[in-house]
Amino acid sequence: MPIAQNPLSVEVTLPREDVALLKVEGHLDVDTATEFRHHLANQLHHGRRHFLLDLSEVPFMDSSGMNIVLRVYQEARELPGSVHIIAPTPAVRRVLDLTGVSITVPVSESRDEALARVDAGQTGPEAPGTGAADG
């Protein structure tokens, strides 16, 4: 019996110096959340303020994965920075919607849309161009 039936793969790229794009593949659950958290903590340590989480290859996410997303969201907002979820699978999107995470953390359909939200300074779920300017 294999120990890691659903291994997690996290590929980190830097679209910009302060933006980390993490493409996650595999189940994001109690068995893999710590590994995911380490990747995020490493990027925070290296000065990244904005996190784009590509969840298009995550077929399943439990409360452990959601807690990591919410924790990095809180940490990023204090910098100030942001977290954006990109293209979650239908099952993950359903969990995000049912738990209200998608109300707090913006969900984009593409990397370009998420980067546009970073450029616009959006940290909430409103669509680009609809948020009020900070005064």
UniProtKB/TrEMBL annotation:
Domain STAS: 17-118
UniProt-listed PROSITE patterns: STAS (PS50801)
GO molecular function list: anti-sigma factor antagonist activity
Species of the source: Streptomyces tagetis
Segments forming a coiled coil: none
Source organism, top-level taxon: Bacteria
Protein name per UniProt: Anti-sigma factor antagonist
Pfam families: STAS
